Amino acid sequence: EVQLVESGGDLVQPARSLRLSCAASGFTFDDYAMHWVRQAPGKGLEWVSGISWNSVSIGYADSVKGRFTISRDNAKNSVFLQMNSLRAEDTALYYCAKDKYSSPNYYMDVWGKGTTVIVSS
Amino acid sequence: EIVMTQSPATLSESPGERATLSCRASQSVSSDLAWYQQKPGQAPRLLIFGASTRATGIPARFSGSGSGTEFTLTISSLQSEDFAVYYCQQYKNWPQTFGQGTKVEIK
């Protein structure tokens, strides 16, 4: 069964850091690009970041550029999101999602259940 | 960035009725458009990609059409499990962008 399981979400104070992880199983992880997509409470979906199969191609939403860093470890079938300088507006459910192809330029065909990040003092 | 605008925000329909959801892009995205369904408390699920191709396991009552800047998702006969929020997403350009969603509710 194809599965993505996110972890690492927490309540954190503004300006602090947090690292999210996503463990993949059921498919050949290093064949595919991966994404992080977030959803603020009661709001729609916002693409956050994407990474190609070989980590060569990486992109970020303007709202997180310079603060968030995406990475992956193909040996561990995992993708990560390092979030620094967190703001209240980063409060959201963060989804890990698999791209249909090896570059992060397409659509997401598998989604995890998400991990919750709350930024508050 | 490309702005995706969905309409209506909420669609009230009865089971068995036809539902038509619209998505407009601020510039052409060719056919690089996907539709997702999200039920309360669940992750989004891919319905349609390439504007009109159903994803694996998606019932034939779901169909997508359009190209360029105007797109439509049609549910031919609403079933109880179809009442949810639907999002369009363009993947023509980075950043990929989503519409704000259309909620399909029971009338």
Structure description:
Chain A is mostly beta strands and 121 residues long. Chain A is built from no helices and eleven strands. The radius of gyration of chain A is 13 Å and the shape is globular. Chain B has strands at residues 4-7, 10-13, 19-25, 33-38, 45-49, 53-54, 62-67, 70-75, 85-90, 97-98, 102-106. In chain B, strands 2, 4, 5, 6, 9, 10 and 11 form a seven-stranded mixed beta sheet that branches. Chain B has a four-stranded antiparallel beta sheet with strand order 1-3-8-7, with no helix packed on it. Classes of the chains: A mainly beta (121), B mainly beta (107).
Q: What is the CA-atom radius of gyration of chain A, in angstroms? A: 13 Å
Write the element-wise H/E pattern of chain A from the N-terminal end onward. Answer: EEEEEEEEEEE
Helical residue percent band of chain B? under 10%
The number of helical runs of chain B is: 0
Order of helices and strands of chain B: EEEEEEEEEEE
Please give the share of residues in helix of chain A.
under 10%
Secondary structure tally: strands of chain B:
11
Give the amount of beta strand of chain B, in percent.
over 45%
Briefly characterize the structure.
Chain A is mainly β and 121 residues long. In chain A, 0% of the residues lie in helices and 50% in strands.
List keywords for this structure.
heterodimer; A: 121 residues; mainly beta; seven-stranded mixed sheet; four-stranded antiparallel sheet; B: 107 residues; globular
Mind sketching the topology for me?
The complex is a heterodimer of chains A (121) and B (107).
Chain A: E1 3-7, E2 11-12, E3 18-25, E4 34-39, E5 45-51, E6 58-60, E7 68-73, E8 78-83, E9 92-99, E10 108-111, E11 115-119
Parallel strand pairs in A: 2-11
Antiparallel strand pairs in A: 1-3, 3-8, 4-5, 4-9, 5-6, 7-8, 9-10, 9-11
Chain B: E1 4-7, E2 10-13, E3 19-25, E4 33-38, E5 45-49, E6 53-54, E7 62-67, E8 70-75, E9 85-90, E10 97-98, E11 102-106
Parallel strand pairs in B: 2-11
Antiparallel strand pairs in B: 1-3, 3-8, 4-5, 4-9, 5-6, 7-8, 9-10, 9-11
